[in-house]
Design brief:
- It contains nine helices and no strands.
- It has helices at 2-22, 32-57, 77-85, 88-101, 114-121, 124-154, 160-173, 181-198, 201-219.
- The two termini are 36 Å apart.
- This is CAAX prenyl protease 2/Lysostaphin resistance protein A-like domain-containing protein.
- Pfam families: Rce1-like.
- Residues 127-213 form the CAAX prenyl protease 2/Lysostaphin resistance protein A-like domain.
Length: 221
């Protein structure tokens, strides 16, 4: 996990910007669509690097135990996803509570993000590219790491409920946002529970994607 986090940061903060600079441009000088494409390519690069790290580190443990990284279109996982969606209002409530408990720290005013700029500009192509990042890419990479790898690994050392809670806490902390810790931990527990019930990584990915889509659509209002 430490190696994955370090690789994720190094790729996104150093390698991709260096390659962009070597190609003669920077993210700040791009149009809304250019910044959205830059974010998409960065996210894909970070995700593939993370999968490569997992593939390399798990090599000596193959064959992996049954159920690891399992994708299955069959089964009752859709019902588990629906039940998980019913808890979205509680995640939203925890988000508001967390913001009230951890207000924005005083300091320089933070500029509007490139996503918000594209939404304000109503650039459909840029918003579509950001939607792919948020609704498709992020759920795939994050679920592979936190529910596909970390959660099953923790069950070797602690009971399943504690493993779900620990992986959810790691999932929340990995977002580096104190104002979202409470809802992200709860969301991580829900997705961990869905994964544990269904034994299907596709279920937690779909649930994760639906939540991110809900947040993205709310941001577009």
């Amino acid at each position: 996990m430490i190696l994955w986090i370090a690789t994720f940061w190094f790729v996104g903060s150093w390698i991709v910007p260096f390659l962009a600079h070597a190609a003669g441009f920077s993210k700040e000088t791009l149009t809304h669509r250019g910044q959205a494409l830059y974010s998409l390519l960065t996210d894909i690069t970070e995700g593939l690097a993370g999968i490569a790290i997992l593939h390399q580190c798990l090599g000596r443990f193959r064959p992996l135990p049954p159920g690891w990284f399992e994708f299955n279109l069959k089964g009752r996982w859709i019902l588990d996803v629906v039940l998980g969606c019913l808890l979205f209002p509680l995640v939203n409530l925890l988000s508001h509570i967390n913001i009230s408990l951890v207000p924005m720290s005083p300091g320089p005013v933070v500029g509007v993000s490139s996503v918000e700029q594209s939404i304000v500009a109503r650039d459909p192509v840029a918003m579509a590219l950001y939607a792919v990042v948020v609704i498709v890419c992020a759920p795939i990479w994050e679920e592979i790491v936190f529910r596909g790898f970390l959660l099953p690994s923790l069950t070797r050392y602690m009971p399943l409920p504690l493993s779900i809670l620990a992986s959810a806490a790691a999932f929340a902390l990995a977002h580096f946002n104190a104002q979202r810790v409470m809802p992200l931990i709860f969301l991580g527990v829900v997705m961990g529970g869905v994964f544990a019930r269904s034994r299907n990584l596709l279920a937690s990915m779909v649930l994760h994607s639906l939540w991110n889509g809900f947040v993205f659509l709310d941001l577009m209002k």
